[in-house]
Amino acid sequence: MKFEPYEIGRLDKGGANIRLCGRVIGPASGPHIVMLASLGRPGSDFDEVARTLAAAGYCVTLPEPRGIGGSIGPLDGLTLHDLADDVAAVIETQCKTPVTLLGHAFGNRLARTMAADHAPLVSRLVLLACGGLIEIPEAALKALVDCFDENLSPEEHMECVRYGFFAKGNDPQIWRDGWHRDVMLMQSSAVRRTPVEDWWEAGGQPMLVVQATEDAIALPANAHDLKVRLGARVTLVDLPNAGHAMLPEQPEKIVSAIRKFVESGERD
């Protein structure tokens, strides 16, 4: 799955013409799942998971955020609500609704905002690395921020990626590239400008929470707190031998958890 992002939606908002690009793979007749990437990262982070789901009959949409892959629009003064509107425009253009909406790390905050703001478009949520409530430890936060520092040596950069994103013994080289500083700054600002209570409990849909047991950034306490708060609405799956990156570390187990959650819901 190496084809380039193409236009998958447009939005006119506040006088700005927003062009949204990404990729759609898999049969249109299958269950529709939309995947939102981590902070400053591209949709290609999902490629292995998306390819496997598409082969199983799913229709997977991988939108790129403003600033990546041809997606364009203002980057200043945004909230998560603005970015959720972008996602809604893609879903309304490309998908059979309601969709399963998956968010990884930053994308989990955006997915929950989207589900709260546009509930009729979303049937269920899959949250990977769902932080946002429990504070990130100082060393992990520094590693996260430094992953976007273009002045680091390649060796220093990879050590930040390893420390912040990968479980002990897992190879971080697959995430050597794909760090978009301007997008990270835009998304971080949008998070700060949006109250946590606007998105924390999403829109009432069932949730699958996949929690890496060695995540140094989105600590497991976040996922377990969400399970305690929302009870039976949350299905919690712990994922050993994975850190914050999780997708390149345990793709087969993530696909298995997604399919079990989606397909059991369709039989209910």
Biggest sheet record: 8 strands, mixed
SSE order, one letter for each helix or strand: EEEHEHEHEHHHEHEH
What is the overall pLDDT average?
Answer: 95
Radius of gyration: 17 Å
Quickly describe the structure:
This protein is of the alpha/beta class. Helices cover 36% and strands 20% of the residues. The protein has a single domain (6-136, 179-267), classed as 3-Layer(aba) Sandwich (Rossmann fold), CATH 3.40.50.1820.
Describe the structure.
With 268 residues, the chain is of the alpha/beta class. The protein has one domain (6-136, 179-267): Rossmann fold, CATH 3.40.50. It contains eight helices and eight strands; from the N terminus they run E-E-E-H-E-H-E-H-E-H-H-H-E-H-E-H. An eight-stranded mixed beta sheet has the order 1-2-4-3-5-6-7-8, with helices on both faces. Helix 7 (220-230) links the parallel strand 7 (207-212) and strand 8. Helix 1 packs across helix 8 (251-267), helix 2 packs across helix 3 and helix 4 crosses helix 5 (154-165). The mean pLDDT is 95.
Secondary structure blueprint with pairings:
Blueprint: E1 6-13, E2 16-25, E3 32-36, H1 47-55, E4 59-63, H2 80-94, E5 99-104, H3 106-117, E6 122-128, H4 138-146, H5 154-165, H6 181-192, E7 207-212, H7 220-230, E8 234-239, H8 251-267
Parallel strand pairs: 3-4, 3-5, 5-6, 6-7, 7-8
Antiparallel strand pairs: 1-2, 2-4
